UniProtKB/TrEMBL annotation:
The lineage of its organism: Bacteria, Pseudomonadati, Pseudomonadota, Alphaproteobacteria, Hyphomicrobiales. Transmembrane segments: none annotated. Gene3D superfamilies: 3.30.300.30, N-terminal domain of ligase-like (3.40.50.12780). InterPro entries: AMP-bd_C (IPR025110), AMP-bd_C_sf (IPR045851), AMP-binding_CS (IPR020845), AMP-dep_synth/lig_dom (IPR000873), ANL_N_sf (IPR042099). Pfam families: AMP-binding, AMP-binding_C. This is Acyl--CoA ligase.
Length: 513
């Protein structure tokens, strides 16, 4: 299957691809319930791009968009694309400190805040003394001051070289990592559903995963490329989601495992019946899928639960399952066409079939690199173009990938990346804390973040106080579910904390907060 030929040059042209099925068809049902046709989306992007240019946005500039899911966020992202500016899509639920770190690293020309739909974005806008403007078609948007020192990056006609979106993931060094995704990266993955006939113009789905996250972005763009319709949901709502399923309105339900677990619990608690419906499948991503979750979802909705796998650095899709309903697989499928993978051992040599090793990935989905961090980029992308995923996997005789574990300490909480060192640094900032160690412990469909702290001699602090202390420093999904105070953290002779002992202790022993 060819996923590279006849692609548009820029991501905003995805709307024109969808419009080929009829430009009067509904592309977006916005957060207020208003329908936007493909033609209306295209014309609004044109007008907003002109207004952004009048605000000083140039080709090569970074445009930071602090947002929750909304038609305004989508329009602003595509308007930036039309100007050859980079969209720095940023979740409004991040803390003020996290927003500031991203702004400092990316040096945007201006910051746009979708303040009407997002109270959190409005707070950030107020803190930045942003000006309220009315932009064509999308209404009130708050806009930060011009960054006169922001220098534009080089612009490339080649879609494979021109950055479309800069998505930040906080790094273990304290500096956030800006993942540079090119237009070709994103278009290659966006076209997959339509060209592989897993998405159709008749499809309707909720846009519930944050579009500031690579998973939410690819779901948005994949459905628009196919000419389908997206219903925007800024924050997950049980009633609206399940009503849309029960009414037969939506044909695809996308969510992360943690959210699917919540859906199942809600359905069971309220004795709801979810069949018949018009779903063709339920789709999960960003976290490993366990068999019990898959079985529950398939029993409740009477359709197959598919699983996708990837990283922000791979735009994000690497593989997708081809399950049949009722089967027992929990692999993450085969690589999508055009993506090459290999599994290597600690010595860098490929391992045999069924053996565990680190997954390396090469293809048009692999990022251009980390913004302003060439050494870090070289650490993860080798001379042959293979990206080190940090995931330990095995391949079976069908080429299907099964995740065995993670070679790094990355925690995935509710579909978001959480780096322990960032959480540890926030806890260590408290005067009573001598050392902190953060681990992830698998729970059904998710990971629980547990922080172990050792206090300074004579120090005294309650876990609740520590939770309150980090509340304004970390986004909610990064905050530990449990904070445990220990007399002393286990240490190796070289002074490193033995996290594997803490993980074993957490898994084998009930922990009292």
């Amino acid at each position: 299957m060819d996923l590279l030929s006849n692609l548009p040059d820029r991501i905003h042209e995805i709307l024109k691809e969808g419009a080929k099925k009829g430009d009067t068809r509904v592309a977006i049902t916005d957060e207020l319930g208003n329908d936007w046709s493909y033609a209306r989306m295209i014309s609004t992007v044109d007008r907003v791009a002109t207004e952004m240019s009048e605000l000083g946005i140039r080709a090569g500039d970074r445009v930071m968009i602090v947002c929750e899911n909304s038609v305004a966020a989508i329009i602003l992202m595509y308007a930036a694309s039309q100007l050859d500016a980079w969209a720095v899509t940023t979740n409004a639920r991040l803390s003020e400190r996290e927003i500031a770190l991203i702004e400092h690293d990316s040096q945007p020309r201006r910051v746009f805040y979708t303040s009407l739909v997002s109270p959190d974005a409005d707070v950030h806008a107020t803190n930045a003394a942003a000006e309220t403007l009315h932009m064509s078609g999308i209404g009130e948007v708050k806009v930060g001051k011009m960054n006169e020192s922001a220098a534009p990056e080089k612009v490339y006609e080649d879609a494979a070289k021109q950055v479309a979106v800069l998505i930040y993931t906080t790094g273990t060094t304290g500096r956030p990592k800006g993942v540079m995704l090119s237009h070709r990266n994103l278009l290659y993955v966006a076209c997959r559903g339509q060209r592989m006939k897993t998405l159709f113009a008749e499809d309707v789905a909720w846009c519930v995963m944050p579009i500031s996250h690579s998973y939410g972005l690819v779901l948005l763009q994949g459905l628009l490329f196919a000419g389908g319709r997206l219903k925007i949901m800024p924050r997950f709502d049980f009633e609206k989601t399940l009503d849309a399923v029960a009414s037969g309105e939506v044909t695809i339900l996308n969510a992360v495992p943690a959210l699917l677990n919540r859906v199942i619990a809600h359905v069971e608690k309220n004795n709801l019946t979810m069949t018949p419906n018009s779903l063709r499948y339920v789709y999960s991503g960003t976290a490993p899928l366990d068999l019990s979750l898959r079985q529950k979802v398939e029993n409740i909705f009477d359709v197959v639960l598919h699983n996708g796998y990837g990283l922000t650095e791979t735009s994000p899709t690497i593989s997708r399952t081809i399950y049949e309903k009722g089967t027992g697989e929990i692999n993450i499928g085969t690589p999508i066409p055009g993506v090459t993978v290999k599994v290597v051992g600690a010595n860098g040599n490929e391992v045999g079939q069924g053996e565990s090793g680190e997954l390396l990935v090469k293809g048009p989905n692999v990022m251009l690199g980390y913004y302003g961090q060439p050494e870090l980029t070289r650490d993860v992308i080798d001379a042959d173009g293979y990206l080190r995923t940090g995931d330990l996997v095995s391949l079976n005789e069908m080429g299907e990938i099964t995740i065995q574990g993670r070679s790094k300490e990355l925690i995935i909480r509710s579909g978001f990346n959480v780096y322990p060192q960032e959480v540890e640094a926030a806890l260590n900032a408290h005067d009573a804390v001598l050392n902190a160690a953060v681990i992830g412990v698998p729970v059904e469909g998710n990971e629980e973040i547990i922080a172990f702290v050792e206090l300074v001699p004579g120090g005294a602090v309650e876990p609740a106080e520590l939770s309150a202390f980090i509340e304004n420093t970390l986004a909610q999904y990064k905050r530990p579910q449990r904070i445990v105070v220990l007399p002393q953290l286990p240490m190796a002779p070289n002074g490193k904390i033995r996290k594997h002992e803490l993980k074993k202790f957490a898994q084998q022993s009930p922990i009292e907060d």
